[in-house]
Design a protein that fits this description.
Layout lengths: L9 H7 L1 H14 L6 H14 L3 E5 L2 H11 L7 E5 L4 H9 L3 E5 L21 E4 L11 H11 L2 E5 L7 E2 L2 E2 L6 E5 L13 E5 L2 H11 L20 H11 L2 H19 L25 E2 L5 E4 L3 H10 L26 H7 L2 E4 L7 H15 L1
Parallel strand pairs: 2-3, 2-4, 4-5, 5-8
Antiparallel strand pairs: 1-9, 6-7, 6-10, 8-9, 11-12
The protein binds pyridoxal-5'-phosphate.
């Protein structure tokens, strides 16, 4: 057996639930129904219930989920949508697909999620919506964002692609904004075996608009009542997601357990009053604001010598990732969106995602931490 430690191991997760997944796939094959059937309907019901939201609409990706959510709010050409640059490029792609212009704001230095104090400065007469991203599994600070949106008559679409099962003030993310978008990309906390996504909302009229947009604007008689597109979730992915949804809480608990182990073992490397600065005390650990239940989609530390640390870990068989190496506004395709975002830019040089997935063993975390201690001593 390899003693390398990988960032994620989707095969290990499949093996842990193989009989359930195989039975679900066999059920779909036997049904002869592959698009928008009983599995999608059941998954939509079950996922909405798990998130404490009235309606879920299954779609083909998280990107489509954001795009359709904004289109359902009639966001389009000439409008502006505020979001962060410190996110997956898909958040910005989805806004641009509506015809609207993404306006990027900086993130909070501790949580690296949207800094609500930066909203006012980005507001114009064209602003129509805000898309906060619950990055790495940590809910964005929704209350001040929602207050701002209410004051200025804006829609809020939560990007929940990395935060299935996270809560803010005890209530799941996904039910706070007007709509919310989830991705079921295979590496997500709740991942399909292909692409998938969902839009959640408590507003039945918005849910109906998303349903129409998802499939050519068709009504029950397959007559297009409005212009739409094809962004359907398929039966196979829905059946697989129904199996995995049953394990989500337990997997998130395990992610939190591993995150706690990382924190306890890495804490001695963190500068604090009780632990005055030495050469090695330069590590920053992810924070979990008290009003949140973080689900650690990623465990992201910061280190001023990130690249050297990353190479050192790799020399010792430990794979890591960087989410995200280049903030969106500094990527060639998005130079037109460039504004100075100092917190985002300085974080990008220091962030490092350590291995974290539910099947990771405690001894793997211990080895990663010991190697970081060795690097820093
Ligand atoms: C924060 C964020 N938003 C949106 C998306 C888009 O999801 P998808 O890849 O399913 O289109 C992702 C996933 O890549 C993501 O991490």
């Amino acid at each position: 057996m390899s003693d390398e430690i990988f960032s994620i191991d989707l095969k290990a997760q499949y093996l842990s639930i193989q009989p359930e997944v195989d039975a679900a796939i066999a059920r779909v094959f036997a049904s002869g129904q592959f698009i928008l059937g009983a599995e999608v309907e059941a998954f939509e019901r079950e996922f909405a219930e798990a998130c404490g939201v009235s309606h879920a609409v299954g779609v083909d990706s998280g990107t489509s989920a954001i795009q359709l959510s904004l289109l359902a709010c009639s966001v389009g050409a000439g409008d502006e949508v505020i979001t962060v640059s410190n996110t997956a490029v898909a958040t910005v792609t989805a806004i641009e697909l509506t015809g609207a212009k993404p306006v990027l704001v900086d993130v909070h230095p501790q949580t690296l999620t949207l800094d609500p104090s930066k909203l006012e400065g980005s507001l114009t007469s064209r602003t129509r919506a805000v898309v906060p991203v619950h990055l790495f599994g940590c809910p964005a600070d929704l209350n001040p964002i929602l207050d701002f949106a209410r004051t200025h008559g804006l829609f809020v679409v939560e990007d929940c692609a990395q935060a299935h099962g996270a809560t803010y003030h005890g209530k799941p993310v996904g039910g706070w904004g007007h709509l919310s978008a989830f991705s079921f990309y295979p590496t997500k906390n709740l991942g399909a075996y292909g692409d998938g996504g969902a839009v959640l909302t408590n507003d039945s009229a918005l849910a109906e608009r998303v349903r129409l947009l998802r499939q050519y604007g068709w009504d029950g008689n397959r007559i297009s009542q409005q212009k739409g597109m094809n962004t359907r979730l398929d039966e196979m992915q829905a059946a697989i997601l129904r199996v995995k949804l049953r394990h989500l809480d337990q997997w998130n608990d395990r992610r939190r357990e591993l995150a706690a182990l990382y924190k306890s073992l890495l804490m001695p490397l963190v500068f604090s009053e009780a632990n005055p600065p030495k050469k090695r005390e330069r590590l920053t650990l992810p924070v979990e604001p008290p009003e949140t239940h973080h689900v650690y989609h990623q465990f992201v530390v910061r280190h001023p010598q990130r690249d050297a640390l990353r190479n050192y870990l790799l020399e010792h068989g430990i794979h890591t990732q960087i989410h995200y190496p280049v903030p969106i506004h500094l990527q060639p395709a998005y130079r037109d969106l460039a504004v100075p975002l100092p917190v985002t830019e300085s974080a990008a040089d220091q962030i490092l995602s350590l291995p974290l997935y539910p099947e990771l063993r405690n001894e793997d975390v211990e080895k990663v931490c010991q190697t970081i201690h060795n690097f820093d001593s």
